[in-house]
Design brief:
single chain
């Protein structure tokens, strides 16, 4: 069986959405590999917030997946194209690494031209949605509609709740890895933080883990 490197990516915002979570992507990749005579040789998981993620230096696990694929002379597989990016320039930059990409959602025969095309369409769709939203807001303002949230305190409560949920989602994603690290004998906060950093994990702000970062996650779980 031909080897395949599996790359999964989630953000704290999208983790809970159907089809975009880790388990959904993993199941899609396992089914795709089985149907196409492929064997998943290694799996790389990226957890990021989405901000500034269209840059390879903000995707250490993707860089590691590329390196592993080059070593094995095989492709990197993703469940959906947007797990790589919706940015056509970022996708083009990945192609320059001379590592083939397979998108399970598009089929095994999707060549680089098709990947560029679908990325360009996704980018165009995003731009059109932004334009329509701006136009709708301008039209509402012209009709005298007061834009914004008049209840500032309520808005703050919603924002705080959103931040708390984001932190809980991130903790839910990273806790299994922490448990795995603890099982190897690394039980101190400093040792766990060091192990997470070696694996390429980053905090929601894109920083390396510190002992207090690990404590914060464990406290949320408790």
């Amino acid at each position: 069986m031909r080897p395949l490197i599996s790359y999964l990516r989630v953000s704290t915002a999208s983790q809970g959405k159907s089809g975009l979570g880790l388990e959904g992507q993993r199941a899609a990749m396992v089914a795709f590999a089985a149907a196409n005579g492929l064997e998943i040789a290694a799996e790389f998981v990226e957890v990021e917030t989405g901000k500034g993620s269209d840059a390879l230096d903000r995707r250490p696990q993707l860089a590691a997946a590329l390196k592993a694929a080059k070593k094995l002379g095989c492709a990197v597989g993703v469940a959906k194209l947007d797990r790589l990016s919706r940015d056509v320039h970022f996708v083009s930059g990945l192609m320059a690494h001379r590592v083939p990409f397979i998108v399970a959602d598009l089929g095994a025969d999707a060549d680089p031209f098709m990947l560029h095309l679908f990325a360009a369409l996704a980018e165009k769709e995003r731009a059109m949605i932004s334009t329509r939203t701006k136009s709708a807001l301008e039209a509402a303002k012209a009709r005298g509609v007061v834009l914004g949230n008049p209840n500032l305190e309520a808005a703050r409560e919603v924002a705080n709740a959103a931040r708390a949920k984001s932190a809980d989602d991130f903790a839910a994603v990273i806790l299994p890895t922490i448990a795995e690290i603890q099982a190897t004998g690394a039980t101190t906060l400093r040792a766990i933080a060091a192990a997470l950093n070696r694996r390429g994990y980053r905090t929601p702000r894109g920083c390396e883990f510190a002992p207090m970062s690990v404590k914060y996650i464990l406290d949320r779980a408790a």
